[in-house]
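Thread title: Can someone regenerate the structure for this chain?

I was given the following input by a collaborator and told the matching structure tokens would be attached. They weren't. Posting the sequence so someone can regenerate them.
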Amino acid sequence: MELDNDMAWRYKIIPLKTLSRLIGVVSRVHFPPWLLRRAVDWYSSRYNVNTGEMITPTEGFRTFNEFFTRRLKEGSRGMDTDRRAVVSPVDGRIDQFGPIESSTMMQAKGIRYPVRDLIPSEAAAAFNNGDFITLYLSPGDYHRIHSPVDGTITGYMHVPGRLLSVRESVARNVPGLYTGNERVITFIRSKRGMVAVCKVGAANVGAISLSFDAAASKSFSHSLKEVIYPAAKEKTMRRGDELGVFNLGSTVIIIFEKGIVRFTIKSTGLKIKMGQQIAVWE
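Best answer:
Regenerated them for you:
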């Protein structure tokens, strides 16, 4: 059901950030193993989690967050073999994709937002007239985030904000949804140009962590933080290498510099797996 304007306003004032942080704390509590197993079984059934592909520790998961941020067995995801391919960094649903019109992107039909609002940095200008894709992760999806391209991580940005739900009904009714939510952006320099992977927080997200810089995640605060690595500390990534983790679910937006990719996906609403092709280099 879509939210009317009054419902959207009320949704904004609910203290979702506080509730989400509380859920994040609870998700790390060491519950009795029998209770945690029941919780995992219920959640897996409710949200269609493929438990056969996940790595389960010998002693079982110690917390619900360990289950939610589970790793997958080797071979569970294939990587597109086309050397020109840009791949999905996550399991998710394709919500939007297409050109950036001058400096604005599509959130939903009739709602656009500036790249500079999503990436409040001088770095945003590099993506004007480029291309973007928005991928939504459902509660049952695998929630680790991987690199869509080969390249070098030049830096990252943490933008504090609210934690509204990013489900489709909210995206269609709350302008500035992604630009108001907390987010972590990773900047990757590929051989073709710059790529930004924007990880957007949402209701029930306990935290967003960076796999390539664990110390950075611990330093996130209520202040905007942008870090540009000196050349000696830039980090080389291959397609499929892990970039980060959603501790409970959300959305990933990938932004490309002008003229460097051509999307090969055909429509929105489709489910896609990490490693599947979404575009090719131009």
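Residues 132 and 192 are 15 Å apart (CA to CA).
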